[in-house]
Amino acid sequence: MPRIGLTGDVMLGRLVDEHQRYRAVDAVWGNTVTTLRELDGLVINLECCLSDRGSPWRRTRRVFHFRADPEWAIPALRRAGVDACALANNHVLDFEETALRDTLSHLDEAGIERSGAGTDLEEALAPASFAADGVDVAVVSLTDNTHEYAAGQTSPGTAWIEIDRGDPETRARVEDALSRVQELDSDLVIASLHWGPNMVEEPPESFRTFARWLVDMGVDAVHGHSAHLFHGIEVYESAPIIYDAGDFVDDYAVNPRRRNDRSFLFVLSADSAGTPKTLRLVPTEIHDCSVHLAGEDAAAWSRSRMRSLSSEFGTEFERADEALIVNLGK
């Protein structure tokens, strides 16, 4: 039974980048590295570009610019066993087209699959694909953040959409991306969505409608991120909808009530045909610009918070050691 890990935002720039220049390449993963490497597949939202070139984006106002040195970042991703990076987000063009092209090249050279950004819209919509213990997995990456980063027919950028299933352009882009997945004949399809604003605590109804529509269109799991806070889990037609996976590693200031330093490693288990069976939530926390398995108090807080947020969806959890488990019903 393959196990595919899904994480929230992985931001390797700024202070994380500075720390990693003076410590072991896998230090950014803290004591999670063994857990990550034991997975059969790992999908992250890479919330930065990987380059030592480029100039900060100034065409429109941008407060933050995230960039990591590929000399350590690529080995770190490989050390964790990252199979695919979702790139449709609001930071992949922070250092303009030069750094985006570097990011694409570095990932390709390392054999790490990617989706959601490219040298043009066609490439940005192309799925990432990899094998996990005999199951063929496809990842489609889309975002509604930062329209100015959107790829065009001949210009680089992200796979940008409106989160509105009724929008003709959105429907066309989603159908285009999913038709490419069908051509791959993948067993398990994941939609990785960087959607919505920062620090919101629950998804709007429009996101719920959109996520369910994706499942109706053939997606097996929805992997949401962007809020920096984890949201509740819904199970729709036996497909898990992670509305927001929160943050996995970064250097962000911590809100003492919302605790954006706490989240989970989400581990999706499937059968040999790629049908999702369970979703395991392993509590994590960020400190010292690294991700760690959560301590007892942090884990208890995150479990309680997740149960509360998921209750409106009727989602029930079992407890297994420090983790929560959702049975998906198929």
UniProtKB/TrEMBL annotation:
Family note: Belongs to the CapA family.
UniProt xrefs under SMART domains: PGA_cap
Annotated PANTHER family: POLYGLUTAMINE SYNTHESIS ACCESSORY PROTEIN RV0574C-RELATED
Name this protein carries in UniProt: Poly-gamma-glutamate synthesis protein (Capsule biosynthesis protein)
Organism field: Natronoarchaeum philippinense
Top-level taxon: Archaea
InterPro entries: Capsule_synth_CapA, CW_Biosynth-Accessory, Metallo-depent_PP-like
Residue stretches making up the Capsule synthesis protein CapA domain: 3-252
